[in-house]
Amino acid sequence: MPIHEKSLIRPENLKTHEKLVVDGVDVSGHWSTFIHSRVVTDYNEALQEEIAALPGGENIHRCWQCGSCTNACTVNAVNPDFNPRYWIYLVRMGMESELLRDKDIIWQCVSCNKCTYACPRDVVPEGVMKALSHWLELKGHTRKSPSMIFDEVFTEQVIERGRIEEGRIIQSFFRRTGQALGQDWLIEMGRRLLRRLPLAMLTRLGLSSVHAPRTHGWARSRAALREYVAEEHARQRRALGLNELIEGAQRDAAGIPHA
Amino acid sequence: MSDSKADKYRKVAYYPGCALEGTGHAYDRSTRQVGKALGLDLVEVRNWNCCGAMEAKNIDPKVQTYLSSRVMSIAANEMGMDVVMAPCNGCYHNLKKAEYDLAHDADSAQVVGRLAQKAGETAYRAGQVETIHALEWIKSAIGEQGLRERIRGGLKGLRVANYYGCMYTRPRHIFPEKNAGPGSESTAKPHFMDDLLAAAGAENVEFALKTACCGGAHTLSDSDMSTRLVLNILQAAEAAGAEVIATECPTCHSGLEMHQVRAEKRFGKKTEVKIVYFTQLLGIALGLSPRKVGLHENVSDVFAALKSRGVA
Q1: SS3 sequence, A192-255?
Q2: Minimum CA–CA partner of B268 in chain A
Q3: Do the chains contact at B121 and A225, CB–CB below 8 Å?
Q4: Bond into B171 cis (ω within 30)
Q5: Contact B229 A74 (CB under 8 A)
Q6: Domain at B3-132: CATH code
Q7: How close, in Å, is residue A35 to chain B by CA atoms?
Q8: If one looks up domain B151-308 in CATH, what number appears?
Q9: Share of chain B above pLDDT 70, in %
Q10: Is residue B237 classed as helix, strand or coil in its secondary structure?
Q11: Using CB atoms, which residue from B22, B53, B296 is nearest to A165?
Q12: Which residues of chain B lie closer than 8 angstroms to A208, CB-CB?
């Protein structure tokens, strides 16, 4: 079979004989390129339902594979392996092992919503990307992504105090991801800012680093939100057939690498 | 533009949001100053909370719906206001999204109702307020003609690339008033900022990346991706001949500033274009001092650039 687009086939599935003569015809090298046929046996028929049970994934069944999402995608333009249309296809087909090949880049969706804007079927591909990232983490296929850690740090502060303070978010995020605060670009930004001594801004930032901004009378909202998030997360874990105690989280806490 | 809208927007509930109290302080400052100079009345939403930004929805979308709707509920039920103005794209987007979800999704309305009840608050009902962006506020309340009459000094042909980012136009279904015929904003090619700055004397360059993404959601969690996306925007603006990029979102603004420095430090790519809030430019055009609109709080040296150009 002639191969038009070798890039679409994984290197391990291509076979080329350096020296091969068939019926007296020399087909060495390029002329003897064959594709190993691929057999998929491990369909997960529940995959689409599992993704649809997570927030953002509800409309995945509507996709008719036009590819508008991938065509519009910001991240795809930087990394062609980032392909929302293809992942939606894999989920709908139940091809879990194929999906897992891309598990480490799915979280990179920047939520620009160009896909959702372009989609003629209201699939909300941006939401599907978030549902996929959650699914990968809940099932223990990936560690918590830096993006998820950021979302957690941020949302914890909102639920705690009603408002966030950027300095605390940055510190907390860098600490949890093991990064140094003294990044060269951060120091350079500070240096440029200090040249003109923006006193009002510095005073404000200084004050909020001592007294965190907060919404008054927030205690009841905090309690209601915490209860709701706990209920929702328990529901999601049940929908994926996981125990109430997430194994992945336990592994994370113990620092044990995921399978 | 109808006069009723102009009247309605003369006094609005102002929702600055968390970023405008921190890194986006210059946006808060210049928005208030421009409002004052134009004779518009801003009444800050009492005891507001974070809208949930880009992050809360990833923990659970309805947490964001509740947070955003609480702000609208205070404006409507405690302050008796019918318009909420948010200069931050994130806040603006989230309030519009909550509005849409509460009107169209019974489940969202039910969850928000339950959370509000537990918190001892009046739940927001869809339609109680109209949420607008600072661009719509000035465009409708003052308009280009009104602005032209009030300009003192103006922007003297300063070449501007207008950058709107993602959250101001996408997804389109949460912005039913856009793409609604003559005079309305476009989600494909937004122009409100272009219109206002042109009236203030700027020369808008042909800029293809008006609604490109700056990678703001991953500015710290996937910084190299954000730096690449921002560098695209900076380089496209420079190629279009822009001296400054005008912004209307604190996350885009600080993202552009941060990754301009980061691109220089990590990728060795230096760009000269300056980053400035559109309200800062309007303020300068209205004759306000650079300090008053917080130009000295910007990381990129807009102050010097405008000075050498004879604008500030």
Answers
A1: HHHCCCCHHHHHHHHHHHHCCCCCCCCHHHHHHHHHHHHHHHHHHHHHCCCCCCCHHHHHHHHC
A2: A185
A3: no
A4: yes
A5: yes
A6: 1.20.1050.140
A7: 34
A8: 3.40.50.11810
A9: 99
A10: helix
A11: B22
A12: 21-22
Beta strands (DSSP E) in chain A are 14-15, 21-22, 25-26, 34-35
Q: Structural domain boundaries of chain B?
A: 3-132, 151-308
Could you give the CA distance from residue B135 to residue B32 in angstroms, rounded to a whole number?
13
Q: What's the fold here for domain A47-138?
A: Fumarate Reductase Iron-sulfur Protein; Chain B, domain 2 (1.10.1060)
Token couple for A62: 């509507």
Average pLDDT over residues A236-244: 86
Dihedral-angle region of residue B131 (phi above 0 means left; psi in -120 to 50 means alpha; beta otherwise): beta
Q: Which of A36-40, A136-140, A211-215, B184-188 has the lowest mean pLDDT?
A: A36-40
A138: amino acid identity, one letter? L
pLDDT at A212: 85
Q: Say if the Cβ atoms of A227 and B301 lie within 8 Å.
A: no
- A76, A108, A110, best to mutate vs chain B, most B CBs in 10 Å: A110
Domain boundaries, chain A: 6-35, 47-138, 146-254
pTM assigned to the model = 0.92
Contact across the interface for B221 and A55, Cβ inside 8 Å:
no
Are B94 and B58 within 8 A, CB to CB? no
Mean pLDDT, all residues of chain A: 89
Say yes or no to pLDDT of A1 above 50: no
Mean per-residue pLDDT for B179-199?
96
Using alpha carbons, select from B221, B59, B100 the residue that is nearest to residue A54: B59
Q: Cβ of A64: how many Cβ atoms within 10 Å? A: 8
Q: Please, are residues B173 and B100 in contact by the beta-carbon 8 Å criterion?
A: yes
Question: Which of these, A224, A155, A157, A221, lies nearest to B74 by C-alpha position?
Answer: A221
Express each pLDDT in B37-70 by its tens digit.
999 999 999 999 999 999 999 999 999 999 999 9
Q: 3-class SS at A79?
A: coil
* B170:A114 CB<8 A: yes
Is the pLDDT score of A32 beyond 90? no
Q: Which of B29, B50, B60 sits opposite A163 (nearest CB)?
A: B50
- Encoding tokens for residue A178? 């093991």
Alpha helices (H) along chain B? 3-8, 25-37, 56-59, 61-73, 89-104, 106-119, 134-141, 143-150, 192-199, 223-239, 250-267, 278-285, 302-308
Residues B86-139 have pLDDT tens digits of: 999 999 999 999 999 999 999 999 999 999 999 999 999 999 999 999 999 999
